[in-house]
Design the sequence.
């Protein structure tokens, strides 16, 4: 028999193995849910799938009795707007700081130590300050996300910039390029796919800061809703919301990966040329 | 080649890193149009010397004069370079690599060309591609090229910068022998056509003999076994290639061979 490190699953087996844990979890949930509901039909902790379906129906396809809005979609739109703006701001600032500190030693000398210290500040500890300074509106939530992930993106981009072979920068200089030409034509285009990678990695943290900010002060949003209905132990709403956030995160990640492959065909295979 | 004064003067150049002397007492004059090959064992400082010409490394002592003036302390368009690898821009196609070379030669902040100047650069690039034998690969990315084609592109790109001096840092070290001889022919023809002064680092002595008009051998003249860093390498042979006899070739070949490892008891 082959060693375990040399055993690889075939195509069918691989798919089966990939789906197996999900199937097991669903079966386990259904069994536990049934068992609890048998004992107490009013149990709220593990609702049955039909109860969850009712919950989804109520939130997504019936207008709210109080405001007349479809809460689920409104929450989704609000949350995605905040996340998108926060990440976009973080990506723009991080890209700029990263390239400047990665390529220009004179700027790195004073920006890098500052960046290192700032990145150590726990963003959630700053949240009260943001509420005081920016108020309880949209701005403070967006700023929290931006503050939370900008240092990570900036440092990642700084490292990626430093990884560009020095030969390329020297070559550009021997062709007569000045600093801005080198930054715009040699460094920036090679860093853009790395930026998308960095954004993909920081989206997890972005969701964390989004939900934290919404939990503390908001009037809508996916995180707000989860924390609101927690008071009524409304697991039939919380569970689909959590699943929906997971699905959104998955598709955003896949979309960015797809964008990277389509927009930068020379990347991955070509970066070592 | 007609000018009387040397184009490049190396005057008592030393290079020291902390306690380690890499190069010592380098003196040489090079006339315009010469093709100098630099050979030596690895770590002998021949690449360090090339980097001094390039401007990325500065001498610790002494000076290198280009047309009587100290050589600039940073790379510039008068000195073109081809490295062994990473010499081309991986995110541009072959054609874009060459058009970018033309764009970099012009002032401006964007490094891009527009309208007529772009059309002209494109035409020039296509002609250059034909000349180096890359006409069919114009729209490929560097990672789709073989090692030899990549180096052809790197050379073409360097030449578009219209350098007076072309520096080659082991440009064919990673190539197969058959492809290497094609590249030799290409370099020689371009050297003649563009009237370049060439410095080429190689660790292949045969390549040094076959190409070029002048051969420099870098080696240590003095050895201190207790402190190997005390003495650096110098130019031990400065030969006009072509006037060389076979015995001398043998002798240099012997000297450049790495010393047999002495096992420590």
Sequence:
């Amino acid at each position: 028999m082959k060693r375990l490190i040399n055993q690889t699953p075939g195509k069918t087996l691989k798919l089966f193995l990939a789906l197996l844990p999900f199937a097991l979890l669903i079966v386990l949930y259904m069994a536990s849910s049934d068992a609890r509901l048998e004992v107490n039909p009013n149990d709220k902790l593990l609702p049955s799938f039909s109860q969850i379906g009712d919950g989804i129906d109520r939130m997504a396809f019936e207008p709210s009795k109080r405001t007349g809005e479809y809460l689920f979609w409104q929450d989704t739109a609000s949350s995605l707007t905040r996340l998108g703006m926060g990440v976009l701001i973080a990506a723009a600032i991080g890209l700029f700081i990263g390239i400047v500190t990665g390529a220009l030693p004179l700027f790195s000398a004073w920006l890098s130590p500052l960046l290192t210290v700032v990145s150590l500040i726990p963003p959630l500890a700053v949240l009260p300050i943001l509420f005081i300074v920016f108020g309880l509106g949209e701005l403070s939530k967006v700023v929290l996300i931006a503050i939370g992930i900008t240092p990570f993106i900036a440092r990642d981009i700084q490292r990626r910039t430093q990884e560009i072979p020095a030969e390329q920068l020297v070559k550009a200089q021997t062709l007569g390029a000045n600093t801005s030409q080198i930054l715009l034509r040699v460094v920036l285009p090679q860093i853009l796919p790395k930026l998308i990678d960095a954004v993909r990695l920081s989206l997890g943290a972005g969701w964390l800061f989004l939900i934290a900010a919404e939990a503390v002060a908001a009037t809508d949003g996916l995180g707000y809703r989860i924390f609101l209905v927690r008071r009524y132990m409304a697991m039939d709403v919380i569970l689909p919301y959590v699943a929906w956030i997971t699905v959104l995160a998955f598709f955003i990640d896949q979309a960015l990966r797809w964008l990277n492959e389509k927009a930068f065909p020379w990347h991955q295979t070509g970066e070592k040329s | 080649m007609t000018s009387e004064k040397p184009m490049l003067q190396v005057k008592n150049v030393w290079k020291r890193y902390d306690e380690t002397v890499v190069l010592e007492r380098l003196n040489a004059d090079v006339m315009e149009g010469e093709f100098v090959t630099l050979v030596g064992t690895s770590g002998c400082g021949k690449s360090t010397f090339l980097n001094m010409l390039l401007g990325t490394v500065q001498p610790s002592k002494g000076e290198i004069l280009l047309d009587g003036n100290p050589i600039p302390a940073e790379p510039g368009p008068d000195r073109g370079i081809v490295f062994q690898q990473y010499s081309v821009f991986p995110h541009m196609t072959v054609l874009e690599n060459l058009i970018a070379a033309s764009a970099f030669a012009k002032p401006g902040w964007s490094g891009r060309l527009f309208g007529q100047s772009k059309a002209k650069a494109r035409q020039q690039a296509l002609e250059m591609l034909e000349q180096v034998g890359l006409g069919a690969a114009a729209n490929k990315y560097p990672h789709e090229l073989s090692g030899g084609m990549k180096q052809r592109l790197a050379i073409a790109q360097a030449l578009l910068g219209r350098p007076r001096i072309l520096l080659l840092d082991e440009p064919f070290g990673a190539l197969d022998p058959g492809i290497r001889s094609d590249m030799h022919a290409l370099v020689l023809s371009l050297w003649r056509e563009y009237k370049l002064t060439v410095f080429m680092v190689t660790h292949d002595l045969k390549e040094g003999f076959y190409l070029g008009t002048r051969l420099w051998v870098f080696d240590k003249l003095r050895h201190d076994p207790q402190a190997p860093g005390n003495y650096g390498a110098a130019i031990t042979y400065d030969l006009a290639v072509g006037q060389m006899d076979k015995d001398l070739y043998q002798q240099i070949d012997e000297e450049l061979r790495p010393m047999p490892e002495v096992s420590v008891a």
User: Anything to note?
Assistant: Strands of chain B lie at 8-17, 20-30, 35-40, 61-66, 69-70, 79-82, 165-169, 197-201, 214-220, 233-240. Residues 37 and 98 of chain B are 27 Å apart (CA to CA).
